[in-house]
């Protein structure tokens, strides 16, 4: 072969190799790395036992072409209330966040934070929440790709010293709350709600800045609630006095840029199935957290009977206020509450 022809062949081979490399390898299959950020520490159950296994599952089902890097404790920067906008604006690819961290932004989804709407089963409520989103709340989340809607299930009251049995027992107590709706619930019964991000709660408890905190059991060990509080108040029955609406979301443009087969790998691990399995995982994590509390001999006050009836009566104004607010905004507030309760009751 002449030297000139050989040079041309080498140039063509080099160009082919560069094209193959740009496409993701000799096969031309694209590979992507997605960065997902959240607010809890790496030792937390949701990080270790929920998000990391999910990321691994997506990776395997994509043939190793999707790698999801999960960053706990806001390691990529910013504060927890900024997570939704970080995803929307493409600062990060995905996030797990709490809707209540941006008060008033997801007004219809707030219905699941109202007293006695959500089930004590995180799985059932997560299934109901996804159905509600598809029917009534897609507009609220139109700026992102929604991967899952999840609730941690039953909300309980952790306190440092005072045992809480009746609504009047929280009067004057500085309690950390997770959202605007839960703030209104406990303000109405005389507490002094405090909006503190989860990572700051252990220090706030240790320094006496707050008297207690409202969390599900799954946060007990991750935030040292089992060490820093001495009382827990839980509510009997099948529904919970409060809950949180949690979102797993992805940047829309990032998702839409993926080739069809990689979008399928995401879709197969999103939506109702991911919401259901996520809720089931939180039910497991709540059992683990409750056992950690009991292991430290912390008394758990189960509120039932006349005490539970007193709480139900005391929280009626908070429900009525939310219904009135939504109705003034053009929604049928009472109908939204009834729909949410019905979906929870029907969920399997």
Please give a structural write-up.
This protein is an alpha/beta fold and 348 residues long. It has a domain at 156-243 and 288-327: D-Maltodextrin-Binding Protein, domain 2 (3-Layer(aba) Sandwich), CATH 3.40.190. 45% of the residues lie in helices and 15% in strands. The protein has 13 helices and eleven strands. It has helices at 3-23, 45-61, 83-88, 122-137, 180-188, 201-206, 225-228, 252-257, 260-267, 271-295, 305-314, 316-328, 333-346; strands spanning 32-37, 66-71, 94-98, 144-150, 156-159, 174-176, 192-194, 212-215, 231-235, 246-251, 300-303. The strands form two sheets. A six-stranded mixed beta sheet has the order 7-6-8-5-9-11. α5 (180-188) links the parallel β6 and β7.
CATH superfamily of the domain at 156-243 and 288-327: Bacterial extracellular solute-binding protein, family 7
One letter per element, helices H and strands E, the order comes to HEHEHEHEEEHEHEHEEHHHEHHH
Summing up helix and strand content along with how strands pair, one would put the structural category as alpha/beta
Shape: globular
Give the N-terminus to C-terminus distance in angstroms: 72 Å
Q: Determine and state the CATH class of the domain at 156-243 and 288-327.
A: Alpha Beta
Largest sheet: 6 strands, mixed
